[in-house]
Design brief:
homodimer; 364 residues; alpha+beta; Creatine Kinase, Chain A, domain 2; two-stranded antiparallel ribbon; globular; Protein-arginine kinase (chains A, B)
Amino acid sequence: MDIDLAELANSCGEWLRGSGPESDIVISSRIRLARNLADFPFISKASEQDRAQIEQILHAKIEAVRAAGLLPHEVHYLDVDQLEEIDRQFLVERHLISREHAESEGARGVLIDGGEQSSVMINEEDHLRIQVMHSGLDLESAWEQINQIDDLFEQQVNYAFSDKLGYLTACPTNTGTGLRVSVMLHLPALVITRQIDKVFRSLQKINLAVRGLYGEGSQAMGDFYQISNQITLGMSEQELTGKVADIVPVLLAYERQAREYLIRESQETLHDRVSRAYGILRTAQTISSEETLHLLSSVRMGVNLGLIGDVQIPTVNKLFVHTQPAHLQKLAGIELDSSDRNIQRATYLRRHLGGEVPPPATQN
Amino acid sequence: MDIDLAELANSCGEWLRGSGPESDIVISSRIRLARNLADFPFISKASEQDRAQIEQILHAKIEAVRAAGLLPHEVHYLDVDQLEEIDRQFLVERHLISREHAESEGARGVLIDGGEQSSVMINEEDHLRIQVMHSGLDLESAWEQINQIDDLFEQQVNYAFSDKLGYLTACPTNTGTGLRVSVMLHLPALVITRQIDKVFRSLQKINLAVRGLYGEGSQAMGDFYQISNQITLGMSEQELTGKVADIVPVLLAYERQAREYLIRESQETLHDRVSRAYGILRTAQTISSEETLHLLSSVRMGVNLGLIGDVQIPTVNKLFVHTQPAHLQKLAGIELDSSDRNIQRATYLRRHLGGEVPPPATQN
């Protein structure tokens, strides 16, 4: 029942496998549903006691469902309020809970499946936030999976629902389906060719939101962008999923065109950028999280374009996550200040990119 | 008799061996003598015909001396006026002729010994400029060698000499002994710790000049500095040599103290700088001459401090010279524009620093 977070740190979620469709550009497909219990006020209006009760009820339901063998994978429940700050941060880096869930207070928890495809946050902005994340472009099966999980809960509890509005949520932007469909894209060539802002303005015009690596308000580090629907009201789940799914091939085509342009017009510059990034990651003795993301982004593109042959995409994907502050500390088994983390990060990168192996002696 | 410059490009002068005393910091010890024929006007006043005659006479004397078996090594005479621009540039990069000698016009030549310890320029600023360059701190034996060469010439020709002033030279600053004593020092730690300007101001106060890698007016690239006497009048050759020789241990102590300080106070930062420099040199696909000097300087210090174990100082010294524009082109056997040179330079560096060998596959 208990989950060992240090062990989890060493492993690697399904979405990091990098084996899904279009995974050279699409990191992951993610769907989340916002749900609330009809018998309790929204979190923003709930008392401490309300929250504790909500957490108790939902946790008990989860155990009942688990006992009945209805949950697909091995699942773990974590009392987020009882976790150390570093463990909460770790779950954020792993995309298993939101930053808001980590930073808020009071009774709250999260259900995680062993494969890290799904998680259910209790007492985030809504009473229930169900999330499913698949590797690559795979919205359809993500939708099937989340729909099943939602059905399991709906059989157990009484959701706040209006025949006119649909599912009721704490924030009106989620009311209706309570659905957010998002894809995480790696768009380095659009960044290098300075087309990214133009692309984003177009997306905003059709009511799609663009966010960074860690959701709302986070910066687009490492050239990663989350594209998601802004509106949930007035459209069906299928229509909303389709709207995001339909735009992805267009973005893929833009990014691939930009990569082809770079290869054609400035192959040497591109190869140089990619190769140096790889060289620095393999030799740095101290390196910040920001520089690491920046360099790994170049390496990831380089691997996908065949400019780097001796490292695989799953390794690169894993390094993106494992070099984040909380992961580094979980993997090292000790708390580290920023300066020690930079040293630890460089050591970790060298070890995983073959950087500590000396080259053969040169002949003169 | 003829010298193959392409072959010379591939070889490596004595002063690059890096085996002389104090060679972690002292690259080379160099002495030059300025001499003029009594029967001809100084170069600045000489007609084209005068110059041609001077060149003829001195060249003939050289052949006579050579025929008599009096010259120490295998020697080569080059008609600098007949050389391609790239070959003249090559000799400058090799420190065998001065930039001024390469760029001037009219009859002029240079005598080079096969070990590249000595060279004699004809019709540079003076009729004769004799130079001896040894690896490391070795002014005494450099002085012995140049004194012998000077004596050989003095037996053959009538030098312009005044009992009151000593040897007469085109520029009054050289009149007297005609001697310039210089040491080339590698002072990266004094640059990093921002003490270099203070050191230079002290040197200027005692009438020592500081110049860059390629002499007068050249920038101090790669943290290399030439320290030399400014005045030659009123002191004996021994006193002048002693003046430079005496200051070198002081500068060595300063540089070593600065290195120890960096190791003690910011070992990680220093190691990081050195290691990244090495990583970039081993992976860049295109790189400028300036960046190369800058990075090689860090690597050189890193090797001397034991922070890099798999490359040797002679290799690094050779790369400093072989990655210069004319050397690169001589080594490649074709003329290259600046952009192609940058690619060629990166390829050369990777090949000689083991950068093309892929690391072992990483396990995930």
